[in-house]
Amino acid sequence: MTDPSTHWRRLAGSAVLLDGFHALKHALRFGAEVPVAVAVDRGAALALAGELAPDVRGPLEALLTEVPQAVYAALVPRPHPTGVAALAVRPSREAALERLRRLPRTAPVVVLDQPRNLGNAGAVIRLAAGFGATGVVTTGTLDPWHPTVVRGGAGLHFATAVERLDVAGLPPGPVFALDPEGEDIRGVELPDDALLAFGSERSGLTAELRARADHLLALPMRPQVSSYNLATSVAMTLYHWSLGRGRGPGAPDALEAPEAPEALGAPEA
Ligand SMILES: C[S@@+](CC[C@H](N)C(=O)[O-])C[C@H]1O[C@@H](n2cnc3c(N)ncnc32)[C@H](O)[C@@H]1O
């Protein structure tokens, strides 16, 4: 058997770091391919699985290799309190794009237009996974698979489709762009095939995204408050979508387990 550190170092350049027990748990649940996983205390990690996630205890038993604390600390940039880390194969871009572009769509795609904050992007991916959104697309330079985003997303990148695209290459569908100057969202039902677009923390929606928008919608907010945090804006909008005709997770006609991708993580403003 290959030494886990050697195996890790061979894969680390191209793989996705799953930092901590919960990220690994979510990735396994949503079909991630995990070639290597380590724990400082294998027994404690398996006990945690038995207590919190019995559905993944079996796969973890087969996967986890115990390594000394110093070896673990040398493999990860920041040790996690659970002392667990793993590497997963990044899902293919082609499969994710096919999923994002496929019509008809049963749940919206979230578009983050030039986001800046890695923590916000992770929180949004976690929200998209929780609501069963089709995926999250980012424009601009932020890498939505950056290790800090994956950490903020708690490993839930594997429960939805996550890619970076230009505005010109966005998936098909009506664009509902969120902006404090828009029409009150409460009077609007959001369709399942919508692209729900949000601006950057600093400067809001770009001119390019505004030009592609079919509707500008505002979240209720009292005068003198300038704006909400990006991730909380996404949360309110997805919740609003889920209320329309009773959609989203737990709704009578909803898919309980969103389709897993083929082969397929301190917020700022
Ligand atoms: C922190 S805000 C951006 C604030 C930025 N200074 C601006 O000029 O718009 C980030 C994004 O969250 C969404 N957002 C925040 N508050 C909103 C509100 N009250 N209504 C609609 N969208 C909102 C928008 O998409 C906005 O671009």
TrEMBL record:
Organism: Streptomyces thermocoprophilus
GO molecular function: methyltransferase activity
Protein name, per record: TrmH family RNA methyltransferase
UniProt keyword list: Methyltransferase, Transferase
GO biological process, one term: methylation
Domain tRNA/rRNA methyltransferase SpoU type residues, every copy: 109-239
Domain of life: Bacteria
PANTHER family named among the record's database cross-references: RRNA METHYLTRANSFERASE 3, RRNA METHYLTRANSFERASE 3, MITOCHONDRIAL
Annotated region (Disordered), positions in chain: 250-269
